[in-house]
Amino acid sequence: MNILLIGSGGREHAMAFKLSQNPKVKKIYCAKGNGGTAMENKCENIKEKTIEELLKFAKENEIYITIVGPEELLIKGIVDEFNKEGLKIFGPSKKSACLEGSKDFSKRFMKKYGILTAEYESFTFAPKALEYLKDCIYPCVIKADGMAAGKGVVICNSFKEAEKVIYDFMIDDIFNGYGKKVVIEEFLEGVEASILSITDGDTLIPFISAKDHKQIFDNNQGPNTGGMGVIAPNPFVTDTVMKEFKESILKPTLRGLKEERIEFKGFLFFGLMITKKGVYLLEYNVRLGDPETQAILPLMKSDFYDAICSAYSGKLKGFEIKWEDKNSCALVISSLGYPCKYNTGFNITLDENIDGNVFISGGTLEGKDLKTSGGRVISLVTLGNDLEDSIKRCYKEVNKISFKDMYYRKDIGLI
Ligand code: AMP
Ligand code: GLY
User: What EC class does the entry list (predicted)?
Assistant: First the structure.
């Protein structure tokens, strides 16, 4: 079987690595992939980018199934376009992708199906939003309704801060229309957890829980990033939390998908906040997380490709995903300056005997040289017999990686 895998980050490198382990998989075309997938077993990078180009490629290259990594093309409706042409593709339809693509849509869905989530109001008219913000409790959270490249959520501590956000999003329109509608939300205090899952629309199997570390600096300081490190399982996701998640979030989500006739075959990511008042759902993502995927897939004992095929054909019921009885630590190594300005083009040196997985995010292969090309460059993943062991191994192995302007947090899993 040939697979077309869309995406170019560390998540896609980890997916390619795991998919390549199935003997039925002959070739994985990565669009556009990166320096990591360029070197991965059975993989070849291709340049096709748009839905049209990808469709044409799938038709001409005997692609058995297309798997989509990032949300952008899902939200644009790539699944509907492939389905129209009778091509197999694993991911949610355009309508279902609104669970991630529109904060207002997902909040309405959560409320309608009784899923515990922060209280909120939506606004399309800036003066109304400002009026509401005058009397609201601070901190509050303002979210651009649409795709905002990870910059659409701002926690505001005062009316003055909130006013600026409303001007930026709704009046100055910094997100080209995607911030013209905003959701203003109650601020929740607690511990975050990521639960990734696979679903065929009928059955949903949660993966091992994970804990992301979003801020750039140690002690959770500085601006938010795409994620600087992950531990899995998440020590705060106790059996009680998992039970509550399954009863009050997972089950009503599945009920909602069915009642709304939202066809969903793909990955669904639940962003949770574990609070003193219960387990809240902050957001859905209609894809796997990055860097959660890098930490989680090396723990998966079952075959990833078989899980996807079972979900695609609606046969996830009865499929069991088995996990290693181990802990995983994924450390993201970035270019100094990320998530703001940074330089790229530096040679990456990797020792041959690294005891772990090296998943490339922002690195390209130029001839035989691997060079930095992005903010997040590498996810280094180590497994251990317990959390401490996995972390200790990660910080030992990281010394075998070097490039100019290399940066990483020193407290992944310790905070
Ligand atoms: P979202 O894209 O909705 O997950 O928001 C991005 C990040 O903002 C989350 O991972 C949280 O760290 C934070 N966040 C979002 N909503 C809230 C909330 N209601 N209370 C506290 N923090 C939040
Ligand atoms: N690590 C969070 C995300 O993938 O959205």
Answer: ligase
Q: Which CATH architecture has domain 2-93?
A: 3-Layer(aba) Sandwich (3.40)
Q: Of all protein residues, whose CA lies closest to atom 15 belonging to ligand 1? A: 282
Contact 142, 156 (CB under 8 A): yes
The CATH number given to 191-312 is: 3.30.470.20
- Best residue among 106, 111, 147, 153 to mutate for probing ligand 1's pocket (most ligand atoms within 8 Å of CB) is 153
pTM over 0.85: yes
- Give me the tens of pLDDT residue by residue for the chain, a chain 415 residues long: 999 999 999 999 999 999 999 999 999 999 999 999 999 999 999 999 999 999 999 999 999 999 999 999 999 999 999 999 999 999 999 999 999 999 999 999 999 999 999 999 999 999 999 999 999 999 999 999 998 877 899 999 999 999 999 999 999 999 988 899 999 999 999 999 999 999 999 999 999 999 999 999 999 999 889 999 999 999 999 999 999 999 999 999 999 999 998 889 999 999 999 999 999 999 999 999 999 999 999 999 999 999 999 999 999 998 999 999 999 999 999 999 999 999 999 999 999 999 999 999 999 999 999 999 999 999 999 999 999 999 999 999 999 999 999 999 999 999 8
Structure tokens at 300: 């998966």
CA of 214, closest atom in ligand 2: 1
Contact between 78 and 49 (Cβ < 8 Å): no
Find all residues with CB under 8 Å of 51, minimum gap 6, and list them.
73, 76, 77, 78, 81
Q: Residue 359: CB partners within 8 Å, gap ≥ 6?
A: 10, 13, 14, 17, 36, 294, 330, 378, 379, 380, 381
Superfamily of domain 327-407: Phosphoribosylglycinamide synthetase, C-terminal domain (3.90.600.10)
